[in-house]
Write a structure and sequence with these properties.
Blueprint (H helix, E strand, L loop, with lengths): L12 H16 L12 E6 L5 H12 L3 E6 L11 H8 L5 E5 L3 H9 L5 E5 L5 H15 L6 E5 L5 H12 L3 E5 L8 H14 L2 E5 L2 H5 L4 E4 L11 H8 L6 H4 L7 E4 L11 H4 L6 H23 L1
Parallel strand pairs: 1-2, 1-3, 3-4, 5-6, 5-8, 6-7, 8-9
Family: Belongs to the aspartate/ornithine carbamoyltransferase superfamily. OTCase family.
InterPro entries: Asp/Orn_carbamoyltranf_P-bd, Asp/Orn_carbamoylTrfase, Asp/Orn_carbamoylTrfase_sf, Asp_carbamoyltransf_Asp/Orn-bd, Orn/put_carbamltrans, OTCase_ArgI
Catalytic activity: carbamoyl phosphate + L-ornithine = L-citrulline + phosphate + H(+)
Length: 308
């Protein structure tokens, strides 16, 4: 049966663990799995500029024996003359899977409905589920069991990383605390979905306005850029509203002594995080960036096995 990965709760708790277990295996034996041998092609579509996503998917597909076909929507019919579902029906006859870094979630949903090959959300305005698999893998490597850990996210609560942390963290049985201004809250329906998941996994969801309250006693501290792509004209207003949520040494001191710091990158040093934190001993951002490769390879292997 064809499975897609459009948002974090497309995976059950057991399936999420299966993929993270598999990620550890493929990381330990990088070239041991070749489900794309042939080579089979995977279409990797970009509406937005990218560094980590482009590199990790291209390298990961090659590691799995396949060939990445990088497509820019600026040089294709997708989003112009052709609908996402029509594009999907063309691609499915020639590729093994479709990866799309895009804007609205609705395009991914339409593409998934229109194809019989797996569709993977490489980033949308609403969710960043592949990044969360990498983050959870990184946290597991440094902390062991995910269940019961306290994760504090500081900054823009309407951020796609927040929505993914809510869903993926709840799925893993973690206690997710989001600290953000009252006018930068996460989507209410995503919060409700995460709370529902948490009731079955033993996790919890807290939406707070006090950054110190969120960080106190946390095992993991996370932030993201305050100014995402397409919001550059809002920079001054965002910096003014979010300045109390900066992760600096004093903020990290409120977390547990062995707490780790994560950031999906790119980072605006001096804004959402100070350089002494992101370059400090508690930062695991380079492990996190590398783990995009291993987590996404595991995801692709798992999805291809479901479709076999």
């Amino acid at each position: 049966m064809t499975r897609h990965f459009l948002r974090d709760d497309d995976l059950s708790p057991l399936e999420q663990k299966e993929i993270l277990d598999l990620a550890e295996q493929v990381k330990a034996d990088r070239w041991g799995r070749k489900p794309l041998a042939g080579p089979q092609t995977v279409a990797v579509i970009f509406d937005k500029s990218s560094t980590r996503t482009r590199v990790s998917f291209a390298v990961g597909i090659a590691d799995l024996g396949g060939s990445p076909l990088i497509i820019s929507t600026a040089n294709s019919q997708l989003g112009g003359k052709e609908t996402a579902s029509d594009t999907a029906r063309v691609l499915e006859r020639q590729v093994a899977a479709i990866v799309w870094r895009t804007y609205g979630q609705e395009g991914l949903i339409e593409m998934a409905h229109g194809t019989q090959v797996p569709v993977i959300n490489a980033l949308s305005d609403e969710f960043h589920p592949c990044q969360l698999l990498a983050d959870l893998l990184t946290i597991r490597e440094h902390k062991g069991e995910l269940k019961g850990l306290i994760v504090a996210f500081l900054g823009d609560g309407a951020d796609n990383m927040v929505h993914s942390y809510l869903l993926a963290g709840a799925t893993a049985g973690m206690h997710v605390r989001i600290a953000c201004p009252a006018d930068y809250l996460p989507l209410a329906d995503v919060v409700a979905d995460a709370e529902k998941i948490a009731t079955t996994t033993g996790g919890s969801i807290s939406i707070l306005t006090d950054a110190a309250e969120a960080v106190t006693g946390a095992d993991v501290v996370v932030t993201d850029t305050w100014v995402s792509m397409g919001k550059e004209d809002e920079k001054a207003a965002r910096v003014a509203s979010l300045s109390a949520y900066k992760v600096d040494a004093a903020m990290m001191a409120l977390a547990k002594p062995d707490a780790i710091f994560l950031h999906c990158l790119p980072a605006d040093r001096g804004y959402e995080v100070e350089a002494d934190v992101i370059d400090g001993t508690q930062s695991v951002i380079w492990d996190e960036a590398e783990n995009r490769l291993h987590a996404q390879k595991a995801l692709m292997v798992w999805l291809l096995e479901q479709a076999a």
